[in-house]
Amino acid sequence: MNIELSPHEARVIGCLMEKEITTPDQYPLSLNALTNACNQKTNREPVMELSESVVQATVDGLVKKYLVSDKSAGYGGRVTKYKHRFCNTEFGSLKFSKQEFGIVCVLLLRGPQTPGELRTRTNRLCEFPDMPAVEAALDALMTREDGPFVARLARAPGARESRYAHVFSGAIESVAEEPHEWAAPPGAAPDADGAAAALEALALRVARLEELLADLSLRLDRIGAG
User: Fold this and answer.
1) Cα–Cα distance between 20 and 91 in angstroms, integer?
2) Which residues share a beta bridge with 74?
3) 7-166: which CATH number, 3.40.50.150, 3.40.50.1980, 1.10.510.10, 1.10.10.10?
4) Rounded distance, CA 218 to CA 214, Å?
């Protein structure tokens, strides 16, 4: 995989991919429509305020990379319109399934996402019957022979899910899946003693919190009586 996109290029490609699916009757996009798509306040992170001249320069660069087509012939009218040649076209070898396409599109438009966020935010582009289907698509994008196209990021402290990012803006080292808190390592038999110890520790914390609340209540009563 030798495609490397700047932030502006990633936004333009993501917008063209999105509008191809969500508004096919208005696709390909004029420069004005593409600029509006890049600057949308919803479904974008970060929100950008790109001028038409910046979008035009970005598109011109993508045309030179053969990732966007700017041919107006056949699209009707005199206004030049743009369509991506990034993937799933006759112009290149990069092919994604519908689910992979949706994930890549959302990652280009919104940055790193958790599997739960991806399942929700791809619903205009594709369907996932359950979370394992999202995880299977992510695994495929990380392990394809012509990839990887996605990397798993280290889980943030306190976060329940890891986030995933596209690697079209530079290589990112993917980390191994981290077990959830209290979970046994993959392939290991359930540890009854470990689970019991965790429950005991939790019970002690609850008891301590109850003591603190009782002490606080007593102090408040004394203040009120005084």
Assistant:
1) 16
2) none
3) 1.10.10.10
4) 6
